[in-house]
From TrEMBL:
<dbReference type="InterPro" id="IPR008928">
    <property type="entry name" value="6-hairpin_glycosidase_sf"/>
</dbReference>
<dbReference type="Pfam" id="PF22124">
    <property type="entry name" value="Glyco_hydro_95_cat"/>
</dbReference>
<dbReference type="InterPro" id="IPR012341">
    <property type="entry name" value="6hp_glycosidase-like_sf"/>
</dbReference>
<protein>
    <recommendedName>
        <fullName>Glycosyl hydrolase family 95 catalytic domain-containing protein</fullName>
    </recommendedName>
</protein>
<feature type="domain" description="Glycosyl hydrolase family 95 catalytic">
    <location>
        <begin position="313"/>
        <end position="630"/>
    </location>
</feature>
<dbReference type="GO" id="GO:0005975">
    <property type="term" value="P:carbohydrate metabolic process"/>
</dbReference>
<keyword id="KW-0732">Signal</keyword>
<dbReference type="InterPro" id="IPR013780">
    <property type="entry name" value="Glyco_hydro_b"/>
</dbReference>
<dbReference type="GO" id="GO:0004560">
    <property type="term" value="F:alpha-L-fucosidase activity"/>
</dbReference>
<dbReference type="InterPro" id="IPR054363">
    <property type="entry name" value="GH95_cat"/>
</dbReference>
<feature type="signal peptide">
    <location>
        <begin position="1"/>
        <end position="28"/>
    </location>
</feature>
Amino acid sequence: MRSLRLLPVAVVIGAALTAVPATTPALASPTDAAFSTSAGRLDVDYASYLAKHDIVYNRPNTNPAYGLTAGNGRTGAMVWQANGLTMQVSNVDASQQTAFGAGLVNLNTSPAMDSGYSAYQQRLSLYDGTLTTKYDSNRTVTIMGQPGSEVMGIHVDDTRGGVSSVTVELSLWDVANLGNSGDVPDINTWRQVSSYADSTGAGISRGQNDPQKFGYTLAATVEGANYSASVVNNSRVRLTITPTSSYTVWFTASTRLNAPSNNSINQAKNALASVKSTGYGTTFTNYRNFWHNFWGKSFVQYGGLSGDADYLENVYYLSTYLIAAGGYGNYPYHFINGVFRSTGDSTKWSNAYWYWNQRDVYNSFLASNHTDLMNTFNNLYSRNYNALKSYTQTRYGVDGLWVPETMGWDGNARGTVGSDYTKNILSTGYEAAYNMYLQYRYTNDANYLRNVAYPYIRETAKFYSRMLSVDVSGRYYMANSNSHETYWNVRNAITDLAAVRSIFPIALSVSQQLGLDSGLRAEWQRVLDNLVAYPQQNGQYLPHEPPLSQTRNGENVASELIWPYNVTGIGYPDYQTAVNTWNARPFPYGNVWANDAVQAARLGLGDQTFNGMKRMLQQYQNYPNGFTNNTNGVFEYHGVHLSAMNEALLQSYNDKIRVFPAAPSNSNFVGKFTLLAKNGFLVSSEREANETKYVGLRSQWGATARVVNPWGTQQVRVRRASDNAILLTSSSAEFEFATASNTVYVVERTAKPLTSYSTTRLTGSQNQGAKSLSGTASTLGLNGSGSSGLVNDTEGTYDSNWHLTTARGYGDYNDDTHHSTVVNAAASYTFTGTGIQYLSERNGDMGSVDVYLDNAFQATVNLNVSGARQVQQVVWQKSGLSRSQHTIRIVNRSTSVGMIDAYRVTA
């Protein structure tokens, strides 16, 4: 495709607030570097490195909410142990906003797969994208998929003798009482179920009469064994398999949306026949190659800090997998429904795509070099351009583009205009336009800029030009709008003012770049030159012109200027005002979609970024599979985590590539990455002992680079890797150089060049157990009985006066808690180990509990604390025990709340 002129990009390297002093060259503690000058990226053994982040269950999990996951980009399965292996299956394009999961698939054998074994392990291999369950050495079940399709597979190797039967059942939940969740025109189409069983396999269909062409068929067949198919009832079909030592069950959630003539039944049969013809071996290889290629596009190491940074890094890779496993459909991976749920058809907030929430899920994928994932998100809005243009004219009587904050799959605004929270939000169109512009800046797709991004940019600018008012002095202002969902019907919402200051310069530049709409530029420039200032008070930005209106939601609206509006940050004249605004934000980490940590990174606050990522996991990562039980969202905090870590390592939002702008100040931090910057720079760098070693840039398109010296005024040089030619030597604070496409450059200190480091390759060791995040109840994985690790409170024994809480109220930071308000209510847990920690929240409604160990009184623990609820913490602990069986007992002392969140056992 034809390239357009690229805007210059500057490179700013180093942590802005913790820069290395410029007096003498600092020596790195480690002496090696992993940058490959030939490849222009870090040299990584991805297979071994990612293996250290596998999620491992060393005991069977029977809780659907804890189910581990596997997905091929469109169809996902969430797996737990119930009558064999059971999984909830869903497809990202199955229904509106994926509101309804496809159904259940169950694999059962006689004798049971999980009977008579001594060793068990279930492993989610991120590098291969597989979920493998092993029972001893004679039973292995591998869940994988066919890339680029809607087909998944269950491959079974079972060499036991005496297996008398194998069945696979596909089923649905009771659809009779199905609620009208999702933007569904007729819920009755989703209550209607049909089934089939024939020589090709068996399947269940619903949504077949959906007028918008949604709906699906959940179907299965078998490769490698004989089988018969039968209909059990209207919502259950069965495959009865003749036992063999190795066979594959192929299943699909084939959607009407993606099927020829919208016939999902024919599509399911054809897809299953095709994959069966290709065969398990070839399909498995293709599937692993799909994931291997995916991971090879970028790399992140965020390590050290007593293991906590490694835990955050583990979540980074897990979160990337969870989203990508369902991110390649025609519709976005919905922020609360996705393709991984264990809730049947039960869902919430699913009548639209909330832009605020969806951006959290997707905005990290440009920097991680997965622009195709971001394109899936942008496509939802670009394909609805005409519908939105028409609705803007109908609603506002202006020629421009308004985008509803809560938009239906077809561009409808039903979820927005019926809500006081969202009906007067004007800035969503700007966000959509800006993300499309970013997609161009990361892909250099000239056709996309001209035909998709620019029309959105132009029409958004036209909309704001018409919606702004002009006072007697010629100043433009916003008379009335919502400052997002939190402040309704206010004057000069800061989101609108920031949108104008962001998108109008882009509109001016791109229109000139494309040679279009010269007649609009004078108006855009006039608005930009005469726009009222952001509302401020006491050295910080306000969400709108004072006095502040009633608070309706928990958003930190004024901090939006920092991210994702991108109009302030490191190096901006109003930097201190931005920091003051962030420090004074009214709702720190207030919900599962809170983006505080991303904004901290944009401000160069490395320690706050690290602590923010940790706090978000402390509050919302409740399950050992990485999921949350928060009912306001499921996947937002995964995406926030991704953006925060990317922004801590690399920034290019303001056309300056900043390397390690928000690294933690602790010298034990180890950071290494290969990420994508604007204008096609694949950037690599390493930082250890508070020192940035070098910066490697692979220029994909030949843009100009400006470099801000990361080492103060120490002399640096730019070296072309292909011939070691020194293109530039400078001690200036900032310099620039031209680049050629597909060429690698190294920015290095003259006194300590990259060649002074020995070369290395980054590797890792395969994870074999559960991991914990210190000071929190967050874990990844399950250890075997008696092993070290966090134990959910539900594994204890409780008298009738203790109650399990699974909804917000008691235990806002971990909804799975046990609590009691009855004096002498007792709970106990028996464990084998050398130590025990008792974890609980603290709050003003709580009282005291007594702790006993092996029937001996240990302590009275006061859980009452004034002020805000305190998150999970260790409230009592004991170490140095003999490694034998012990019992901890918690006794409530008063009618105030006594609470148990979890235990942590030391083996």
